[in-house]
């Protein structure tokens, strides 16, 4: 089972005693702040929860599944998450 963005907004609304509109804006601002920091190449550290960072993927050889032809997959950056100690302990 997973929590959707809509369910997260409802949860924030209930726990923080906010309107749905206010909690929707708060979640939106929070997620945009993480995205914008990663775009600038910065880490986002939430003590006790975890760290969002950019990871560099090297270029590598791959295969086109339709033709079997060997292709080169370009290097790229991908977002990553490393859970903190508290989060690891709480989900054990």
Describe the structure.
- It is a single chain.
- With 92 residues, the chain is α+β, with helices and mostly antiparallel strands.
- The protein folds into two domains: 1-42; 52-92, IHF-like DNA-binding proteins (HU Protein, Chain A).
- 41% of the residues lie in helices and 29% in strands.
- The strands form two sheets. It has a three-stranded antiparallel β-sheet. A two-stranded antiparallel sheet has the order 3-4.
- A hairpin with a 6-residue loop joins β3 and β4 (70-73).
- α1 crosses α2 (20-39).
- The two termini are 17 Å apart.
- The mean pLDDT is 95.
Concise description?
This protein is an alpha+beta fold and 92 residues long. The chain is 41% helix and 29% strand.
How many whole angstroms does the radius of gyration measure? 19 Å
Rounded to the nearest angstrom, the distance between the terminal CA atoms is 17 Å
Stretches where pLDDT is under 50 for at least 5 consecutive residues are none
Output the helix-strand order: HHEEEEEH
Which outline best applies?
Answer: elongated
Strand order of the largest sheet: 1-2-5
Number of H- or I-type helical stretches? 3
């Amino acid at each position: 089972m997973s929590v959707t963005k809509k369910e997260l907004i409802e949860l924030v609304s209930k726990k923080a005693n906010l309107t749905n509109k206010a909690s929707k804006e708060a979640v939106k601002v929070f997620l945009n702040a993480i995205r914008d920091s990663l775009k600038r190449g910065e880490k986002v550290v939430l003590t006790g929860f975890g760290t969002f960072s950019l990871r560099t993927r090297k270029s590598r050889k791959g295969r086109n599944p339709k033709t079997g032809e060997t292709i080169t997959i370009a290097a790229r950056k991908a977002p990553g998450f490393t859970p903190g100690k508290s989060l690891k302990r709480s989900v054990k």
